[in-house]
Amino acid sequence: SSFRLAQVSIMAADASLSPAAKSLVSATAGFDALFKNDNVGARAAFSAPSDPSPFHLLGLGAVAFLEAALGMEPGLMAEATKILQSAEQGAKRAEAEARKAGSATGSARTKGGVDGHGDGGGRFVPGVEWEILHADTVVLLGLTQALSESYMGYLQCLYSLNAAHGKFTKLYKAVFPSGLDGYRTPAPSHAPSRSSSIPPTPSQSKFLSTTDPDSDPQHTISKATSLLSLASGSSGSYPSPNGSTATLSVPPSGATSPLSSSSTTSLSAAPAPKKGGGGLFGRWGSASLLSVASSAPRSPEAEREKKAREEEERWQRERPAEGPVEEMVVAGSAFGYGLFNLVFSLLPKRVQSVVGIFGFKYDRALALQALAISAGVHTLIEGDGGTASAGTDVHGVFAGLTLMTFHGVVLLLSGYQADEAKTVRTYKTIVDSIQARYPTGALWVLNRAKILRMTGEPDEAISVLQAALSAEDNGDVKRFVQADTLLVFELAWTLLSQRQFEEAAEAFIRMTALNSWSHATYFFIAAGCFLAVGEKAKAQELIDKIPDLVTKKKVGGKDLPTEVFIKKKMEFWKEKAKRHNIDATKLVDVIGINPAWEMGLFWNLHQRTTNEVATACIKDLASIAPSISVVSPVLDGTPPQKTLAELDTPDEQALRSLLLGVMHRTLGLFGPARELLESARATGSHAKVNTWVPGVALFEEAVLVLKVEDSVRALDEADKLLDQAQSHAAKSEIDLSSRLDSRIALLRDEIGKKRAAS
């Protein structure tokens, strides 16, 4: 089992590791099990120690949180909250003890840490690992409180996130005092120059291997050994972004360092700061070697030595992490800082104005760079593609997951990408890297399928998802039920995008057995799927269940946005049925626009469909009276037959024009597409229920402009259209306005990238 393998890995760990490092390696084995879908094995690994460390408690809390969050099960939050609170208190105690022990012993530092309390990994001050762990627990506690679905829970979440944001910002500034440029690759491409005469040391040799084992040490060191060999026995290299291997120049054998009279002195044994020296970097802070400099004039030799020390100090800050604790500090600081910057950058404008009160500021480009460093990914930094390196710290895996989610959202919802090929390449690189380590993990399978759907291979995406779910059904791989929810949800949308209506309906209905999120939304879409194949009885049966469902689900005392939308739609259908003297038990007879296609607009379903599917959808919509006035090569001009479902309101006519406009754009028929989108805007201004249509039509028109022409003029026109769309998104009474707000922000980012590249 995963747990037994984890025990073997821990036993194989270096016996000289500090207690903190051993606890970290042990807990990492639990996360490895979790990422392989084995949440039972993960719980066993996290619960194995009789006196679990804060690392283990955080792991247990993370399992409980993921089970609740992925399955949308707020009822499971109590367990996560209790465990995470214990982890938080444990981390605070361990941090305080490590700092106290470090202060009491002065500069005495050993590889085993300071009295076993915490070693900072050898390069950082004692206890910094606990500070990062503390910040991690605060983040998860905040998210847990948000899922409690209470007003107080949201306030507690905001308070927690504010505290964690401050911690990670402080850590980032300390761990990366010179910024991130030195971390363009996990193995820095620059190191002390030959003039510094720093010889290869035991600590370097432990991490780096030469290109030729039999060569002289003066040859270039070209590969960095993966540090997780401590726990898994695996190793990896750190290629540079252009595909070559980063190199580290070393002086001729026998040369001595100005910092030591011995060529064998380890860098990790360099002078420690004087007692009272501050800074997160234990020996590279304010009391570092540079602090001994006097203000007296320097001789040329002294200047050379000063420069050599500066270069060594910089290299020490930017060198590859050595050991699990150092790696945690670097990866954890980069992840936390990157995560918060990215999350805040994606908040709707209205929410950003609120959190701005707390002093939150963000830099999305820097966020992506920090996350890339944590995950060991190069493609986000260099423009030529590059590769990804297998990370070792669990923060690196979470950073990779964050990047996957972001790039998946950009591809799905922005509508247009400044460089779609690069975005896809980057996305795929991250997935390849992590899936190589956890091939059966549901989260990585999910993202593999998303890439296939986004790149025009929906049938392959369906096969990947069905194979993963089938393997779990057969017991071939571990089952993480909550993660299955995401696989089934993606499968449902992909099946719908291929007009496999009955299979899609079954998948959406299956979602109601997997989680307790909006069953009304699942039934609403499934009803549309049944309508598409003429199964009116099945569709009506699902629609009849919706009224009771939408009165149950609340978030913070408010209805879910999708359910607000659905309730309005149900009332609209009832009014239409009343006008036609139709009983409310036969609403399916008056539904003109298929609700599955309508809901698909908010998930941008129609942009990624095939030409065959788009053409079939256009013909379906054109078959409903009244006739479409726009001339289209897809249509033969046959007048539709009048039925009870005739579109007799501005709401329905505007919605049809919007759908037709998007689908014509998918086919590359930009002329008819623009006419239809402009018609949707004009007609939608008279809508009583579908008041969201004009704003979405403006957004889709901006996307069209960018696809038609690659020019500064097109960028300017798209910006103006987005300004108008933003005015609609700012209205709280507009259905799903926050989703439109987020899509506008994503598209503006892509426009900004295009301008920068022009």
From TrEMBL:
Query: Which stretches does UniProt call biased (Basic and acidic residues)?
Result: 300-321
| Biased amino acid composition, Low complexity | 186-198, 232-244, 251-274
| Ranges of biased composition (kind: Polar residues) | 206-220
Top-level taxon of origin:
Eukaryota
Chain intervals for the UniProt region annotation (Disordered): 94-120, 185-220, 232-274, 292-322
Q: Which SUPFAM superfamilies match?
A: TPR-like
Q: Which GO terms describe its cellular component?
A: cytosol; mitochondrial outer membrane; nucleus
Database matches in InterPro entries:
IML2/TPR_39, TPR-like_helical_dom_sf
Protein name as annotated:
Mitochondrial outer membrane protein IML2
Q: Which species does the entry assign this protein to?
A: Mycena citricolor
Q: What is the lineage of its organism?
A: Eukaryota, Fungi, Dikarya, Basidiomycota, Agaricomycotina
